[in-house]
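User: Sequence in, structure out. Go.
Assistant: Echoing your sequence, followed by the structure tokens.
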Amino acid sequence: MEKNMRIMTEKPLNAETPIESLRSWITANSVFFDRNQGAFPSEPISLEEWKLLIDGEVRNQLQLTMDHILRMPKATVANTFECSGNGRSLLKEKARGNPWTIGGVGNAVYGGVWLRDVLQKAGLKDSAKHVSFEGQDQPLGSAGIKFIRSIPIEKAMSTTLLAYEMNGEPLPLKHGFPMRALALGWTGANCVKWLCKINVLDRPYEGFFMDNVYRIFQKDQDPKSGEVVTKLKIKSIITQPLKGEELDPGTIVVLGAAYAGESDVERVEVSVDNGKSWKDAQFIGPHESFAWRQWQYIWEAKDKGDYALMSRAIDSQGHQQPMTADWNVLGYGNNGIEEHAINVHIT
């Protein structure tokens, strides 16, 4: 049974996926986390009216209809999608932004067309270095700043999808109907929804959502000098048992997920003694590029008491999830290992 989402703000809508809904490889559309900067359309645009403009450093300006898109070769890919600020509230020092715990993440199977196929139709000029995306959502603030982001041309031409399906259904309205950009293995900030315009540029897009936010910076540092938030970091989460749960001694199945964006998760280790010792977990379910790996650890809990469970992931390049993530002003990229306290008691 689906649980209620944890709503942090209603205007714009920002809500977490319930932890119980993160236990399956595919996260249901109905509880997939919501992250918005502005107001999205109240009604879906008619597909007869929708058009996608491709402009800028291209030889041929294009205006594609959905019929044009659907006649192009289709790609179907799984992708784990995470809010840049997921885990922000779990940092040791407070950071600015919505107080995400671990529910700003999910995995879905998307259908669409490769961005490179669209850009090749337009013909790239030698000056094409970056690609920006603009959606149909409207700013809520008095400044009227549109949510526009750009990615390097290398990412655009390799592993970026223009998605119109999510988990076998047309893209839901709140997740970008009729189309969204999907930079596989990168954070949600790089994946503009309600897509209507693609602009090819000779430099990164300059604007508030590129220069002032979605940058890793410290206090008293100019945000624009900070690193742009792009790839997901290696991370694991525990989804069962829940924090604070009371359990009987005996066999306890610990479930979780691990992901590493563009890298591959090779191993997950679990500790039931607050990090003093670690043992390998077992992977379960599908193994796809850009998608998380579900795992389980079978724990024989013989003694009653309080326990601190932990999990850590290691990728194919040997990168290990850190015990503590580096802090930054906006709390992006928290992939630190979390203590997961439970109690084993005798009834």
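User: And one key feature?
Assistant: The two ends are 27 Å apart (CA to CA).
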